[in-house]
Design a protein that fits this description.
Elements: E1 5-9, H1 15-27, E2 29-35, H2 38-50, E3 55-59, H3 65-79, E4 82-87, H4 102-130, E5 133-138, H5 142-145, H6 151-171, E6 176-181, H7 189-192, H8 196-205, H9 214-225, E7 236-237
Parallel strand pairs: 1-2, 1-4, 2-3, 4-5, 5-6, 6-7
Keywords: Oxidoreductase
GO biological process, one term: monocarboxylic acid metabolic process
Pfam families: adh_short_C2
Length: 246
């Protein structure tokens, strides 16, 4: 176990997840870097180890109960009880609503919403038994304002925000803090996969005039995981270049 405990970061193979895993390892957590792709998970873990910190790469699909059980078991076996969970796994798919297939919709909710539920359910009992723990869910500013050609993605991220608030009401008194991060457009492979036209239109809308960087989101997660965020309960923080102002 790291000096701050054991952290699981799902979807840690690239983009925001990778940045979060690197930051939390530097903060002092022993990190389980999970990704659907084993090679990517192990590459990030090796990168963390090369920097002198502690990590292990673990493959698994967060929408699968069997895989989730294996991810959490690997974390416990390697580093001890999970004290921090970052539900970051996700993907983006762009299509007008009228062109969405049922399979597109179902997979979007399976990874983002079911995945967040399954991972949280797997670690929450031991956090409550210990009387402390932190859960950070990765939402999106599109879950707050919606996005053209991203109805299913926006809906899934809105669901995560609602789940965050409800769970925080249930478990905060037991010592477990639950919050969400809703980034705006960030320079990641996921956002770069969106059309050039979409990215140009979105960039022009941002008061800050630029997309964010993964490290800027990782700093937000690091804060929410820290004692400095002790009063943050059921909140959704927005490193979003001004796209949403609350």
């Amino acid at each position: 176990m790291g000096s701050l405990g054991t952290a699981i970061v799902t979807g840690a193979g690239s983009g925001i997840g990778r940045a979060v895993a690197l930051r939390l390892a530097a903060d002092g957590y022993a990190v389980i870097a999970n990704d659907l792709d084993r090679a990517r998970a192990e590459t990030v873990a090796a990168e963390i180890a090369a920097a002198g910190h502690t990590a292990r790469g673990v493959a698994g699909d967060v929408s699968s109960e069997t895989d989730v059980a294996a991810i959490v078991a690997a974390a416990r076996e390697a580093f001890g009880p999970v004290t921090l969970l970052v539900n970051n796994a996700g993907f983006v798919h762009q299509a007008l609503f009228e062109h969405l297939e049922v399979a597109d919709f179902d997979r979007m909710f399976a990874v983002h919403v079911r995945g967040t539920f399954l991972m949280t359910r797997a670690v929450l009992p031991e956090m409550l038994a210990a009387g402390h723990g932190v859960i950070v869910n990765m939402a999106s500013q599109l879950g707050q304002i919606g996005g053209i050609e991203l109805v299913h993605y926006s809906g899934a991220k809105a669901a995560i925000i609602g789940m965050t608030k409800a769970l925080a009401r249930e478990v905060s008194a037991g010592g477990v803090r639950v919050n969400a991060v809703a980034p705006g457009p960030i320079n990641t492979p996921l956002v770069m996969a969106l059309s050039e036209d979409w990215r140009a239109r979105k960039s022009a809308e941002l008061p800050l005039g630029r997309f964010g960087e993964p490290d800027e989101v990782a700093a937000t997660v690091s804060f929410l995981a820290s004692p400095a965020a002790s009063l943050f309960v059921g909140q959704t923080l927005g490193p979003n270049s001004g796209d949403v102002m609350l």
